[in-house]
Amino acid sequence: MPTDSHHLARAVARLNRRLRQERKTDLTPTQLSVLGAVRTLGPSTPSAIAAHERVRPPSITRTLSCLVDEGLARREPHPDDGRQVLISVSDKGEATLAAERARRDEWLDHRLAQLTTPERKTLREATALLEKLANT
Q: Where are the beta strands (DSSP E) in the chain?
């Protein structure tokens, strides 16, 4: 018998899968997530980005290298620590994120418009709870 946890996990996974289907980029979901994290964090060290994404530094290093190679991110020397580098989003990366966000939001806005006002209110309230679950 499915539990509340099972229902929630399945619904979130299905919505996530559907939103990914709206992507038109060649980036992997991981690359897109890391690029978004770099945008959120601002210029950051690979270690800080790895901590934010909750992955090990070697994994993030490979992903960041791909993003830099594609011109979506920049690697610059750290101003205070010569052993470190800072990663930031390039103009091309900003444009890629904006296009993906617009495409996703257009699809989701259309679906949300089909819900009743009380259903949209419930989703707004649930969104805060989902954020709380994700950040613990």
A: 73-77, 85-89
Among the listed residues 23, 45, 30, the one whose alpha carbon sits nearest the alpha carbon of residue 96: 23
For the stretch 35-61, pLDDT in tens is 999 999 999 999 999 999 989 988 899
> What pLDDT digit, counting tens, does each position of 65-123 carry?
999 999 999 999 988 888 889 999 999 999 999 999 999 999 999 999 999 999 999 99
How many angstroms from the chain centroid is the CA of residue 130?
15
The pTM for the full model equals 0.77
- Quote the CA–CA distance of 74 and 91 in Å, as a whole number: 10
What distance in Å separates the CA atoms of residue 99 and residue 58, rounded to the nearest whole number?
29
User: Distance between CA 133 and CA 4 in Å, rounded?
Assistant: 14
Q: Under DSSP, is residue 87 helix (H, G, I), strand (E, B) or coil?
A: strand
